[in-house]
Amino acid sequence: MTFANTFIGIALGALVALPLAAAERGSDGDLRILYWQAPTTMNPYLSGGIKDNEAASLTLEPLARYDPAGVMLPWLVDVIPTLENGGVDDDLTRITWRLKDGLRWSDGSAVTSADLRFTWRYCTAKDGGCAQLEKFADVVDVETPDERTAVVVFSKPKPFPYGPFVGPQAPILQAAQFADCLGTRAPTCTDANYGPIGTGPFRVTEFRPGDVVVYEVNPEYRDPTKPAFAKVVIKGGGTAVGAARAVLETGEFDYAWNLQLSPDVLSRMQARGKGEIVSAFGSLVERIAVNFTDPSPELGSARATVAHPHPVLSDPAVRRALSMALDRKMLSDIGYGPAGRPTCNLLPIASENADTNCLRQDLEGARALLDQAGWIDSNGDGVRDKNGRDLHLIFQTSTNSVRQDFQAVTKEWWRQIGVETELRNIDASVFFGGDPGSPDTVQKFYADVEMFAGAFDGTDPEVYLTTWTCGNAPSPENQWQGTNTSRWCDPAYDALAAKLAITGGIAPRATLAMAMNDMLVENGVVLPLVDRGRVSAHALDLGGTAINAWDSELWNIADWHRIKE
After folding, report:
1. Rg for the chain, CA atoms, rounded
2. Which end of the chain is more exposed for a tag (fewer CB within 10 A), N or C?
3. 101 CB neighbour count, 10 Å cutoff
4. DSSP state of 324
5. Chain-wide mean pLDDT for the chain?
6. Over 90: is that where the pLDDT of 449 sits?
7. Full set of structural domains in the chain with CATH
8. C-alpha distances out from residue 129 to 134, 188, 224, 551, Å
9. Are 107 and 197 in contact (CB under 8 A)?
10. Are 323 and 344 in contact, with CB atoms under 8 Å apart?
11. Which helix (H) or strand (E) holds 508?
12. Alpha-carbon distance values, 428 to 49, 258, 397, 444, 512 (Å)
């Protein structure tokens, strides 16, 4: 599959046929799901964590979302607006969405276009720290000509106008519930952030951050025959090993997400006969992000901000050498087996177009590069130095066995080129959480390099690539919710992002996207490692699941049901 032909497909009519839930609403009892990276908020606009977005997706919904093939489906609308059906204006500056008739929030009130307008205002409010701000790039207004119609107005032509209100990262918020939560007040609205009123098949009855979410059927859900389950529990915490065992060996849970384990371990567990492993490739890439700012504690509140460039990693030779020392094929083999592919790119589906030199480990070349850049071991202690500063790095990531294996072998490879590495691992619920007060979040980045996986929903990467524009750097001013974790800034990259936003046609957009991918990789902003398939497991008697790498894995939970013998 080439990059170009993965661009957006759209289903113009009603939803495609999905597995039907058995019997009547709520008749299948309890559903138990294990997300070992525990959700810490139910508001996707205040977190960049996949586990938070997915937990929220049972309750909060967008206007449109993606199916497992990457095709856009109408969700809270009957038809996706396009140029062909008149929903997108000829000048590409306006897209008109029309809500389904009779939509209601879980509290019984009507869903209206005013809720869409408010959601836009909420995410773009000054100092609100919206983690999904790029979804609303170039939006200057959301007009509401009537209660069911919302017109998103852009400041420039948008050949791909499906950022706002599309996908699990950009759902609709109820204006009445979040009215007093704009701007700096956004993270203080605990009741709303932990128990949002939504349109999804379930509503939250209990939320304990970092522990458990309990849901019951939404009595106002638009399909009176669904969902089949009366109650859902998402349990958080533990490890990927424990999650896999709970489904595949003990049968305590019905579904376990993100089983980041070696393939031989998963195979042995599946042989117990209680569950099935499922996987799907999408845009998920394991990578090492490089910090372009100085995380030194001595800088106080200014640490890891753009005011202070990194004293070591600002040198492109160091970033290049770190990448050359990696054996990506070995990482893929030991971590993921057939569910992983070594990659040099952040857009893995484009790998045939890219320079694949990074797939060959080159320790000797890395050493020579550092020599040429003046990084030498002046005192014979095995650690290179320059101008009185050692090549010493803090390497952080979340806690799980695969990532700790990656850390260990990477530390050894970097030792062989004269880099001393201190390893740090952080509980995944904290690392991927949205708490602006925590020093250990992926956005705060109080380390030199950090490892995590990132992906984009849908198949068009415009919003995803906008992540690395200059204005998206996390900072105290945006509640540390910016998505440009590396704090890299290049006006030439921003210019490409602006051009992509107004470029139409699959081939021209693909060309621009690949150029942006190449800038990120060649500048060592991120070091891509493995194109990862999503791997989860479900009980053998759980029907209706359809693992989805382009949307939330729980995207069709209204159709999940218990298989009766």
Report:
1. 23
2. C
3. 8
4. H
5. 92
6. yes
7. 8-280+534-562 (3.40.190.10), 283-455+526-533 (3.10.105.10)
8. 12, 12, 37, 23
9. yes
10. no
11. helix 506-522
12. 10, 12, 8, 14, 34
∠ Cα 296 301 306 (to 5°)? 70
Tell me the pLDDT tens digit for each residue of 364-373.
Answer: 999 999 999 9
Q: Residue 2: pLDDT band by 50, 70, 90 thresholds?
A: very low
Task: Say if residues 294 and 310 touch (Cβ distance below 8 Å).
Answer: yes
Tokens of 447: 């380390």
Return the structure tokens found at 137: 């790039």
d(CA 471, CA 29): 47
Whole-angstrom distance, CA of residue 551 vs CA of residue 548: 6
Q: How far apart are CA 35 and CA 18, in angstroms?
A: 24
Query: Which has the closest alpha carbon to 243: 492, 49, 251?
Result: 251
β 9-10/71-74 pair status: parallel
CA distances from 221 to 27, 200, 201, 370, 392 (A): 15, 6, 6, 61, 55
Three-point CA angle 121, 126, 130, nearest 5°: 70
Q: Which two tokens stand for residue 509?
A: 């957009």
pLDDT per position as a tens digit, 105-152: 999 999 999 999 999 999 999 988 899 998 999 999 999 999 999 999
- The first and second tokens of residue 408, run together, are 């260990």
Total residue count of the chain as it appears in this document: 565
CA distance 560 to 296: 48
How many Å is the maximal CA-CA distance in the chain?
Answer: 75
